[in-house]
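Deliverable D4.2, example record:
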Amino acid sequence: MTYKYIKILLMFLLLSIVFTSCSGSTKQVVLVQPQSEGYELPLEIWSTIKLEKLSMRLNHCVLDEVGNPIEIGTKVVVLEKARCVSVIYKSEPPMTFPTGMVKIRIINTGQEAWTWSNAVSSNTD
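Output generated by the structure prediction step:
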């Protein structure tokens, strides 16, 4: 990866954190294709996530069940941000991504679920 792409990725992650930092917000956002370190993450939702403390101070979110796909552009409200520094995605093979998770409410259905923090955007048409 070149310096330019790393800089763009870091800016995207910072903006994702800023957009999701207001957990009490009821602002509608839309889901976008999440990415981390050049990987396109599956746009999915999970009913639960697990937190594991793999070091003295840092929590990691663990996804050890199959997620349900959701469409790009789905309107949601961000309810909560998980307190984790990375996500362990137990796929085949398991991978760790330096991103977080957010709890969302899907506007059309009212369903509450977890998804990647960088899957939310403030662009609402």
